[in-house]
Amino acid sequence: MAEPKRPAAGRPKKPAPRKKRSTKAEPPPPMIEVRRIHRRDLNRVWEFLKISFHHVNLETVEYQRPRTKKRFLKTYDEEGVDQLVFEVGDEIVAYAECAHDVLGADNWINEGYFERRKMRPLFVEELAVHPDWNGRGVGGFVLEQLHHLAKVRGLSHLVLEVAENNEHALQWYRKRNFRKLDAAIFLAAAVDTEDELLPPKPVKPPPPGTESVAPTPPPEETA
Ligand SMILES: CC(C)(COP(=O)(O)OP(=O)(O)OC[C@H]1O[C@@H](n2cnc3c(N)ncnc32)[C@H](O)[C@@H]1OP(=O)(O)O)[C@@H](O)C(=O)NCCC(=O)NCCS
Question: Residue 78 sits in a domain of what CATH number?
Fold first, then answer.
């Protein structure tokens, strides 16, 4: 006689517990918005830039943001510069500045470099995220916006300068397909230094026969 079939090994499955539906709806995530700068934003954006670049400027040879407030304010009146403010609510969380012409007499960029390579660059002069908002995709959104600007204007590359020892930003850009164009690095060699002024030296005694001039005592007072 055939043996009765044994039941399949393993415990009978318990019905999966029903997921409790939370009655509270998740609050919507904060929204980031981009707009062009207004004159009334200038002071707030300058304060934002000082905070965002504070730790970077402690480590780099060149200033990584406009050197002075005066220079920053002047940019607002220059033609051909896009200044973009990124906000969550009414808080400034990021700022970007770009232009498709090389601006300013103090600029050392050689435009021929790009022309010879058939590159039409969008120069990104500033890109900064408030430190309280780092790591939340804000910088990613700024970059998306800059790519979008370049695309709609028929420009072929985003070009920017970053200090090699601003390692966080450099890695961040590399991960996002930025590649080094040129090798302008600051080099320094230590010099064996000597003080310009000589050290103290003993003075010779007066030559023989020269009497030393003693200070004249004050006249004695009469009673
Ligand atoms: C570089 C910079 C723009 C990045 O902005 P961000 O908003 O932090 O960027 P995102 O959130 O899109 O990406 C941050 C990356 O760092 C990681 N990260 C996580 N926590 C982080 C934190 N607390 N702080 C910074 N980055 C963090 C994220 O996971 C993400 O990693 P990924 O590169 O693997 O994607 C920003 O750090 C910055 O403004 N730095 C100071 C100014 C500066 O140096 N600008 C560039 C010179 S021109």
Answer: 3.40.630.30
